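Re: Re: ligand-bound prediction request (bumping)

Still looking for help on this. To restate: I need the protein modeled with adenosine-5'-diphosphate bound, output as structure tokens. Inputs repeated here so nobody has to scroll up.
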Amino acid sequence: MAQNDIGIDLGTTSIIVALEGKGVVLNQPSVVAVDHRKDQVLAVGDEALAMVGRTPNYIAAVRPLKDGVISNHMLTKELICRFVNKVYDSHLIKPRVAVCVPAAITGIESDAVVEAVVAAGARQVFLIDEPIAAAIGSGIDVREPSGHMVVDIGGGTTDIAVISMGGKVRATSVNVAGNTFDDEIVKLLRLKFSVAIGLRTAEELKKEIACCRPGTFADSMEVKGRSLLTGLPQRLTVTTEDLYEAVMPLAEQIAAAAHQVLEKTPPELAGDIYTDGVMLTGGGAMLKGLDEYLAQQLKVRVRVAPDPINCVALGTARCLVIGEELESGFQDATPRLGRR
Ligand code: ADP
Ligand code: MG
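Reply:
Sorry for the wait, this slipped through. Here it is.
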């Protein structure tokens, strides 16, 4: 394999770039700061995120990959170009780039991604399905004729798939994922304590003290918000117990979606999954107790991948090595450009 092969995970929350053999070389938020007066991109990634809430109103921070679907082609292109240029040294031979596109992406949107990657200097572009990349990155040998189930819980979507012999056999995608947990925590605090908190605070609560398996973990955290009754700043101590009301219904929805996929899985493959278990990937996989909750609901072993956030990027980079042996989840997209 060439030294300059690049794998990109185009996530709703973050864009992660990995090089086979070297691991993750870049992980930045998928945010673009735009100056609306000139329609100009000012910054991407960390730099753009740092501007959120601190800019004059003609500058906006945009997440162009919202909910796993590309909402703004121009900004997505700019984001990809700038990131590829950060890791790719133009003195070397042009790189081959594999990109993992969200499951919900349409043909036109993925064409835009391919174009952006070529514009950034790639000599060849490959597209890979997210569940296949997630499985490879979590150490599963997807080429073997055995069924595996991967549940990837990202920011915008949870993607559930059964794969075998390098292809997707059954799959579904639900809009319940990391961001939904944050939203529900915000709502709960408004209802229960009449306190308004921001999404970043909600995310902190989720990561630090939320748990999906009642009785297995207990902690509390003090947060700052605004009282809806007085309009003034207020401190509030929130406990793990308080948050069950927000997180449990969402965990239930993820379990129900996984259950439906299992129901539709051919018996042989379902048998393999019962032996092998389910693999959780994506940042949302780190929610405390979610693995145990899903194991209890689905009656199978559930494991969190060793490096859940980076799984997809690592698997995508790895694809450039094993791609030819994959059934359907991996395709050379460079010829698509000829059609345009
Ligand atoms: P995407 O593929 O959409 O870019 P990621 O796989 O990076 O998303 O996951 C992002 C989500 O994971 C966010 O909602 C974030 O809050 C959540 N997350 C990250 N770390 C944790 C953690 N320790 N506990 C719970 N959720 C987490
Ligand atoms: Mg992802």
